Amino acid sequence: MSTTENSTDHTTDIPSNSNGKTKDPSDNVAVSKGERTVSVASHLVLSLWTVIVVLPLVWVFLSSWKTTSEIFQSPLSLPKEWSFDNYVRAWTDSNIGDYMLNSVIVVTSALVIVMVLGSAAAYSLARYPFPGSGIVYYLILAGLTFPVFLAIVPLFFVLKNTGLLNTLPGLIATYVAFAFPFTVFFLFPFFRALPQEIAEAAELDGAGEWRTFFQVMLPMARPGIVAISIFNFLGLWNQFLLPVALNTNEENYVLSQGMARFASQAGYAVDFGQLFAAVVITIVPVLVVYIVSQRQLQGSLSQGTLK
Amino acid sequence: MTAVIPPTTATVTKKPRRRRMPLARKGFLLVTLGIPFAFYTMFVLWPFAQAFIYSLTNWSGFSDTFDFIGFANYQALLKDDIFLKAVRNNLFLALVVPFTTIVLALALATMVTVGGAGTGAVRGLSRSSLYRIVSFFPYTIPAIVIGLVWAQMFDPSAGLVNGVLTSLGLDRFESFAWLGEVSTAMPVTMFVIIWGFVGFYMVLFIAAIKGIPAELYDAARVDGAGRVRMTMMVTLPMVRETIQTAYIYLGILALDAFVYMAALNASGGPQNSTLTITQDLFNTAFKKGQFGLASAMGVVLAVLTLLFAATVFLVNRLTGGKDR
Lengths: 307, 324
Description:
The complex is a heterodimer of chains A (307) and B (324). Chain A is mostly helical and 307 residues long. Chain A is 73% helix and 0% strand. In chain A, helix 11 (222-237) runs antiparallel to helix 14. Chain A is globular and about 75 Å long. The two termini of chain A are 30 Å apart. Chain B is globular and about 75 Å long. Chain B is built from 14 helices and no strands. In chain B, 67% of the residues lie in helices and 0% in strands. Chain B has helices at 23-54, 72-79, 81-114, 129-135, 137-140, 143-153, 160-167, 182-210, 214-222, 227-238, 240-256, 258-264, 277-287, 291-318. In chain B, helix 2 crosses helix 14. Chain B is mainly alpha-helical. The longest helix of chain B has 34 residues, at 81-114.
């Protein structure tokens, strides 16, 4: 156990007086057999879980380079030749490229809008309680507890009547509406915990409501905003029911719908190489973003819990 | 307070500030709160309210007219064997999935945080960040893709699962249809859902366990408590609230489960063994055009969800959870 390991990996340890900075004197004492057993057993179990997580992904990656007949002959073998055929076909034939573009447009727009609306609403609710603000808060919470499925049928007609059915703006609007309650719920305590004296000082210095919100209070709630942005991004990117029910025009399909088509075709004449290539194209961008930003994500997760 | 959600204890408390609100502030509130709330009402609250009304009608969705038929839809559901099967499947999911996921996630999180060898202070496992990072992978993969990948993993002839089993000499599994057999379809489906969620909750529990004051562990250690005892006496009571939150989230997810079902067994599985309320609802509404009946199914689902959440709160309270 080296001290460098500890200091680079301080997120895993229970914070204790021996954590990281100073070398634990007990390192020099012989560690008992029982202690070692616990540690080794833990490593074994965690490694096993890691394998269970990684194996399907590795298999998908390998299969994405194979032909369908290769996949059927021997699921375990390596591909005979590494050609980009499957990827080219997935990108062009099954329109994964178009679907991804739609996903990016819808998720980005919805994310920006819901963060603006959600943080503004959470701020106002937290900072300026007025008669009836409790009711508003609980009505927003109510949206979290009911299953989206209950609303899907009437929602279909709300969108139809406003001419937004089967359009990207319609999808963006519903994404925003359904991500809104969780955003408010999450940010409300952050804004409540901010020192009000600073806002009052800013106002005394002549800053208006808007300036105080955008330039003083919003930056102070940054950890909460980062955390909820990540959660909203993953949630909206994975959204399935809303597009399937409300966005049936094929040109407007998002990624999850494109993948669902493969699912419904399964068993028929599916080009499996192409399917796996499409899966890899879908997974890799988010996985890369996650690996790059995982420290921040884990940090914001514990920030949220420890606050 | 430990949960994904930061402090939930802070509810709207009315400060006795009764000064008249300046006009600029009224305008600010109207824009920052009024506009989002109006939007939210139109797209979320109003549809929810409508669903309750439609559930009392025989509306097909395509006609302009419909009649109020009272609770006839609900009575029909009580006699609908397929719907009742879906309800049973959902209850089974809500029983098994959250429990297994949380036990597994807690066990892994405990190993990461207190599994390290040492004679002094309790410490985390060395070089554990890899486990943490990799376990979270499934959470970044869209659920529909998770379902799709595992449907292929369990494919009778081309899947990796049977490939590995037969190469180990278990010829019985040469073309075993995991998702096509009544006995295995549901367990396999549960496994896939659990696979997708353990990593996220593991990371969540790691954060919660790290929030426990180290002195508590040190004191337990000095008193001679082993790892198991420490987990039961220190960790579990301290992360109780996080477990409750996780249980409710996972329960809601298990009562929905639409995405996984759509990817693994779009038709509801062999003899409807994996059919869920949400699948039945979707077909009833958009394929059969019985919007009134579908809304009644939605109401049943909502009631089950609320009952589930209430049960979790109650159990937590009865087993000694603090009343915040």
